[in-house]
Amino acid sequence: MPICLGLNIKVSKLDLPNMTGNGNNLYVGGSGPNNYTKIQDAVDNASNDDTVFVYDDSSPYYENLKIKKRINLFGEDKNTTIIQGNSLYHVIEITAPLVKIMGFTIESVGDYPDYGLRITSGRITINNNIIRKNDIGISLDDANNNIISNNNFSNNRDRGIFIAFSKNNNINNNYFWNNGGDAIYCGESSNIIKDNHLFNDYIEVKGCLGHIIINNTVNSKDIVYLESSSDINLDKGNIGQIILNNCKNITIENQEARFDIIKSNNCYISNNVMSNTNYGLLLTSSNNNTLSNNDILSCKWHGLYIYNSANIQVRICLFREYHLIEISIVV
After folding, report:
1. Is 198 in contact with 25 (CB distance < 8 Å)?
2. Which helix (H) or strand (E) holds 188?
3. Whole-angstrom Cα distance, residue 106 to residue 10?
4. Contact partners, residue 176, CB within 8 Å, separation at least 6
């Protein structure tokens, strides 16, 4: 199992003039005579466009941060500059726009971890961090036009990234593994999810449209996302997850993958293996679909989950070591 994946950008004090623009630099940790001991104190004393640089020699920093102004918060090295928040609140809450955070390990301690980062503003950049051991790694809530890139998400109890009421966010070039729910939950329209690498994690999309979900992999296999597509036969390829969103007349055969069928009708799913995922097949708000001769085994939550769907035919499917088959009919 990988410990640290992706690009690691180390920042030194000498790099700051080239990275931070016209603001002033404030320092936390280290040996400077006027350096701060706590990150929050430096953040509170910073002005808009300032940069707070955090040395790793005083790590870990036991703090829960609130950022209410547009600043840069840079750690010296993401592997060794650690912010540990207690479980009473989010490790970092960002309510101001135009904040940049780079170069940290962000994690919760305690029995009931909260969010690693909660973002309720726009044009935020979260780059080159390790985000682990939280309830949710990053929550985007009414947060638009943000960039989340080159981060490692692991061992978050629920999800790596949770998107709600948030649009036009760019989630790219991140690594996800062993998050308790899914890597990314996308509950709003018009977000970009591309070039991410997932290990034992998946993408969950609700029935909203306008996404660009391309060039992602799970366990080194492709994630195929089809939106508003029709009359396609998926019977070849190295595929680890298939997501159909507002599709019709799709045939899926001879795959070993997880299947998410959302608002999609008249599809035929046959001779597939669905194993070792949270859901083998998730079928929501979809009608007139046929499941035939599929092998569903060793699923964590539900081997087959059917919700708010009608006229579903299940023919000769083999369920082995599944956690639960759940069928919910909502009128």
Report:
1. no
2. none
3. 16
4. 153, 154, 160, 183, 184, 196, 197, 198, 199, 201
Global pTM reads 0.91
Q: How many CB atoms lie within 10 A of CB 315?
A: 10
- 35 CB burial (10 A radius; 0-12, 13-18, 19+): middle
Angle (CA) 185-209-227 rounded to 5° is: 95
Query: Within 10 A of 223 (CB to CB), how many other CB atoms are there?
Result: 24
DSSP secondary structure letter of residue 59: P
Side-chain-side CA neighbours of residue 317 (13 Å): 22
How far apart CA 317 and CA 4 sit, in angstroms, is 39
Q: Which residues pair with 221 in a beta bridge?
A: 218
pLDDT of residue 284: 93
What is the mean pLDDT of each successive set of 10 residues along the chain, which is 331 residues long? Answer: 56 59 91 94 98 97 98 98 92 98 95 90 98 96 97 96 96 96 90 97 91 97 98 94 97 95 96 82 93 83 84 74 50 35
Phi, psi of 15, rounded to the nearest 5 degrees: -75, -20
Question: Six-digit token pair at 323?
Answer: 């956690």
Cα dihedral 76, 87, 135, 154 in deg (nearest 10): 30
